[in-house]
């Protein structure tokens, strides 16, 4: 494996992190504030204009999946030209442009169009951003660095629903005002990219110019198989919010319930990331899959608001134990000049798998009953945990030999 060269200014720390990692974190915080202001009320808004639960899941699945292929291409092209910042500017710029336009929609189909474009922007920016983080890591602390990214993501996911809750409390049902105001933080994020991020330039001989399957180790593809199985049972969070509403949580309080999960994730992400650097990311991921299985089984059984709130808190711990850790794990097993491509393939797989996952969950919710999609998610998470155990055993045997 190619030795990872130190990033320029790597010895300079800002709160223990490279400047680029802090700037990408702030960018994610601002953009996630905007997105989660919209996302926390979108299920209720869609149903208010005539969407069913199946179409709700379909909108999310199509928007994520059809735009997700761009993640692999953007990751490869960022490796090919040795730059990440232009992809971030375009990707985050699309979100800043699209979010206020939700104010104008009058049908679920229009939401699908805008959601697709906004997620297309996420597809452009995600892998290059993650590659920039991986290339700016200090002392091989990938888990801690991606933990900060996750914490900032979820801090925005706390601020966004809080703002949505405050607006809904004063102006019940005024979803369109929320969509309009949500554009402000997304615009501020663009300025952070322009002035806060310094390109991690690469010399010409370091560039990854041609893709071959053999460029990545077998364990990379084994891990992608585990991610696929897990994600197949990991449908849109919108169904969790719908379940909370059906159990008895009022619409105005739905953003606060979602906030609970993100609050736990914020406080846990950096400590869990640091722990993964010390004891191994495989162990943390297995734990995260098992937590998810317990949470989804609980959602299937839950009949009280207290149970729902407790499960959302546990869901935050799952999030801190998987999202950033998986990206850190991918970057650890990938050569430095292929990290954008490797992370792009990973992110594309997540997005593509979300379509069948959302369709399965939405169909089970509408056509069978509200418990079955959660039991299905729990079963897939258990299968992923078992596969992760096999992964660990196989890798240990290889190291011995």
Structure, explained:
- The structure is a single chain.
- By secondary structure, the chain is mainly α.
- It has a single domain (19-202, 214-400), classed as Growth Hormone, Chain: A (Up-down Bundle).
- It has helices at 19-39, 42-48, 53-81, 85-98, 108-135, 142-170, 175-181, 183-196, 218-232, 238-247, 254-279, 281-301, 305-332, 339-368, 372-400.
- It is globular.
- The model is unreliable at 1-11 (pLDDT under 50).
Stated plainly, the CATH topology is called: Growth Hormone, Chain: A
- Total number of β-strand segments? 0
Please name the CATH architecture.
Up-down Bundle
Helix content, binned percent: over 70%
Low-confidence stretches: 1-11
**Cα-to-Cα separation, first versus last residue:** 18 Å
* Outline: globular
Average pLDDT, to the nearest integer?
84
- If helices are DSSP runs of H or I spanning 4 or more residues, what is the number of helices? 15
List the helices and strands and how they pair.
Blueprint: H1 19-39, H2 42-48, H3 53-81, H4 85-98, H5 108-135, H6 142-170, H7 175-181, H8 183-196, H9 218-232, H10 238-247, H11 254-279, H12 281-301, H13 305-332, H14 339-368, H15 372-400
Key features of this structure:
mainly alpha, single chain, 401 residues, Growth Hormone, Chain: A, globular
Summarize the structure.
This protein is mainly α. The chain has helices at 19-39, 42-48, 53-81, 85-98, 108-135, 142-170, 175-181, 183-196, 218-232, 238-247, 254-279, 281-301, 305-332, 339-368, 372-400.
